[in-house]
Amino acid sequence: MSTDAAFALVMTTCGGAENARRIAQALVEDRLAACVQILPIESFYRWEDAVQNDQELLLFCKIKRDDYADVEAAILSLHEYVTPEIVEIDISQGAPAYLAWITSATR
C-alpha cells in the first residue's frame, strides 16, 4: 500500500534502559506512537572532537507523520542526552492492515 508518506519511523538512541523505557512508555501512552521497539546497538560517533564508542539502545517509533513535531518535543523533554539523535524516516509503503493499525493506535 502506498501511503504518500502519511507514516514515519522516528529513531532515537539512549544510553540506558530506564531512559529508553520512559520515552517508549510516554510515546505509546500519549498515543504519539503506535509502537516503540528498543534494540541494543554499538555506536561510533564524534563528540567533543573525539571519536566515541558506546553501547546504546536504539528506539524505533512508528508514528503518523503529522505528529512528528509532538513526538520530537516529547522525546526532547524526556531525554537524558544534551543533543539526542531524533530523525524521521518516511514510510512510503507498508502492509495495509499494519498501517491501519498505526492510525487506530495513535491520536
General description of the model:
This protein is an alpha+beta fold. The chain has a single domain, classed as Alpha-Beta Plaits (2-Layer Sandwich), CATH 3.30.70. The protein is 32% helix and 45% strand. It contains three helices and four strands; from the N terminus they run E-H-E-E-H-E-H. It has a four-stranded antiparallel beta sheet. A hairpin with a 2-residue loop joins strand 2 and strand 3. Helix 1 runs antiparallel to helix 2.
| Main β-sheet description | 4 strands, antiparallel
SS class: alpha+beta
How many DSSP helices? 3
Query: Could you spell the SSE succession in H and E letters?
Result: EHEEHEH
CATH topology: Alpha-Beta Plaits
Average residue-wise pLDDT:
96
Termini, distance in Å? Answer: 21 Å
Rg, alpha carbons: 14 Å
**Gross CATH architecture:** 2-Layer Sandwich
Proportion of β residues? Answer: 35-45%
Strand arrangement in the largest pleated sheet: 2-3-1-4
Helix content: 25-40%
Give the overall silhouette: globular
* Uncertain ranges: none
Number of strands: 4
Total separate domains: 1
Which CATH top level class fits? Answer: Alpha Beta
Assembly state here? single chain
Key structural traits:
single chain, 107 residues, alpha+beta, Alpha-Beta Plaits, 4-stranded antiparallel β-sheet, 3 helices, 4 strands, 45% strand, globular
Can you summarize this structure?
With 107 residues, this protein is an alpha+beta fold.
List the helices and strands and how they pair.
Elements: E1 2-14, H1 17-29, E2 35-47, E3 50-64, H2 68-78, E4 87-93, H3 96-105
Antiparallel strand pairs: 1-3, 1-4, 2-3
